[in-house]
Amino acid sequence: MNRLLPLAFLACLLWACGQTPGEEASREDTAVESSEAPSDNTLSAEEKSEGWTLLFDGQSMDQWRIFNHDTLMGWAVQSGEMVALGEGGPDGHGADIITKEKYDNFDLSLEWKISEGGNSGIFFYVVEGDQYETVYHTGPEYQLIDDTGFPGDLAASQHSGANYSMHAPSSITTKPVGEYNLSRIRVEDGHVTHWLNGKKVVEYDLWTPEWQALIDSGKWNDYPDYGKARSGHLALQDHGNKIWFKNIKIKTL
C-alpha cells in the first residue's frame, strides 16, 4: 500500500477547510485564553453588561474617604490591593473608610484576607454626623475575622459572614489566614443576604418587629439610630490590624 496516500488525503481535507496544520491548535489556545477569568480589579464583558461597577481599580482609592472626614489616611494601595495598615485614624476611632457614594438596593462583591488574629467588617447604610462617632453607630455589619486565631472567645454571631451581634452564620467557611475569601452582600427592599466563599450563610429582613427585637435585646440597644437608615454609605473597618481587599464591585438594583 502506498503510504503517501493517507498524507495526501489529509492535506486535501485541511485545504478544503481553509486551514493549515497548526491553525487548529492555535484556535484552541485562543479559546482557552478567552475563557479565563478577568484580571484582578477589572470587570468582564458580562459583568459590565449586567451593570456591575468597580469601587477599586487596583491603583487608587478615589472612591473612598475616612468616615466623617474628607481625607484618607491609614490605608495604602500595594500591588493592586487596598490595605488597612492598622495604624489608627483621626479622633481615636480608627481609620474606617466609607464610599463617597450612597446606596440603597445593591449587590456587593469583594475579596479579602486578614492578618493573624485580625478583625474587621463591611458595613452598609452608614450615616455620617457629629452625633455618630463610628460607622457601627448606624450601619449593620458583615463580620470579617480570623475565625481560628482571634485572641479571644467569639460568640456565634461574631464569626465571619455574620450580621455582627445579630445573626450568626449557618457555617464557618473562611479560608486560612493569608488566603483570599470571597464575600457578597445583597440588599433589596430590606431583605439582606450574606454569602461567604460561594455559600449563603445569613439571611434577614431589616426594619421588621423581629429586627427591632434583636436590637432591643442586644448591644445595639445603646445606639438609637442603629439599623434604621434605608440608604447610606458602604464602609470598611480599620480595627487596628492589617486587612487586604481587592475586586470590590457593586451593582445597584
TrEMBL record:
Where on the tree of life does the source sit, at the highest rank? Bacteria
Which is an annotated GO molecular function term of this record? Answer: hydrolase activity
Which residue numbers delimit the 3-keto-alpha-glucoside-1,2-lyase/3-keto-2-hydroxy-glucal hydratase domain? 51-251
**Keyword Hydrolase part of the UniProt annotation:** yes
**Which keywords does the record carry?**
Hydrolase
Polar residues bias locations: 32-44
One family from Pfam that matches here is: 3keto-disac_hyd
Q: Which parts of the sequence are annotated with region: Disordered?
A: 24-46
- Read off the InterPro entries from this record: AL/BT2_dom (IPR010496)
Keyword field contains Hydrolase: yes
**Per its record, how is this protein called by name?**
Glycosyl hydrolase
